[in-house]
């Protein structure tokens, strides 16, 4: 096996380790580390939760003195700053590893090349970019927020074959089956916040939290904030979403009764500014939008959606049912086009993952 193939093999092991923190590390990134010597794993670790040791620390503890002269495979550039934990780059230097292979550079200004420089200054060989695309997918929100100040926004929709999301009366339970609804729990669980509109809360009395995940203890999941856009202050105090008020944020006029419950209240602001606020002030780097046609359309038309997750059920609801989007276009040139990332069948439904594209017809 070539050296490149070996590096890719061990980095894939580190990526699999990083995935173990997928639902619990927010707002920290998912990171895995494997330490290899004489083609054998002598230490491995992943970052489980903010405030706990980083992946490299767990791996170095397991490796012990054997780490000297070994190669460390890390999915994200080792940190170079003192936060809740000491710098991992310095820990690798202290352990006297021979080489560090890094999948993704860290755009966080507190790191951004400094971790690599600490290693190089100590005479440690460093290689960057092995399996970078695969590792980056684990931290799309973190990487985007550190680079741009904006979170990664996913828009989730569920519709019939004729693009309808509810009957004219508002009845919408259920268009898709249980497998599709279970899949939605994953996207909520990796999100720092779920954004919805007040009309959806009033119509569905939804909770928008994570209630079940396959083979995962829900108690270990960092629940997303539920962000409600309520410009006229209509949120009922009896709404189910307020059963856990400490995880609720409301953008609307100030209401003392919400403050008494512990709800975080945000001033009314444009959607782009709201996203920047969530990222910069609240360290929310992944956002899931689960809303009605009006709000979903605005997010798309303002170019704020990074990815659309569309569940399609094999059913027809008819022309009087509510449309998935309510944009009004006159010309083909105005259409919103997407690039298809993947298609997955979930029992009788399908899930399409798409990214908006500027491609013109």
From TrEMBL:
It comes from Acinetobacter seifertii. This is Riboflavin biosynthesis protein RibD. InterPro entries: APOBEC/CMP_deaminase_Zn-bd (IPR016192), CMP_dCMP_dom (IPR002125), Cytidine_deaminase-like (IPR016193), DHFR-like_dom_sf (IPR024072), Eubact_RibD (IPR004794), RibD_C (IPR011549), RibDG_C (IPR002734), Riboflavin_Biosynth_HTPR (IPR050765). Binds 1 zinc ion. The lineage of its organism: Bacteria, Pseudomonadati, Pseudomonadota, Gammaproteobacteria, Moraxellales. Gene3D superfamilies: Cytidine Deaminase, domain 2, Dihydrofolate Reductase, subunit A. Converts 2,5-diamino-6-(ribosylamino)-4(3h)-pyrimidinone 5'-phosphate into 5-amino-6-(ribosylamino)-2,4(1h,3h)-pyrimidinedione 5'-phosphate. Keywords: Hydrolase, Metal-binding, Multifunctional enzyme, NADP, Oxidoreductase, Riboflavin biosynthesis, Zinc. Pathway: Cofactor biosynthesis; riboflavin biosynthesis; 5-amino-6-(D-ribitylamino)uracil from GTP: step 2/4; Cofactor biosynthesis; riboflavin biosynthesis; 5-amino-6-(D-ribitylamino)uracil from GTP: step 3/4.
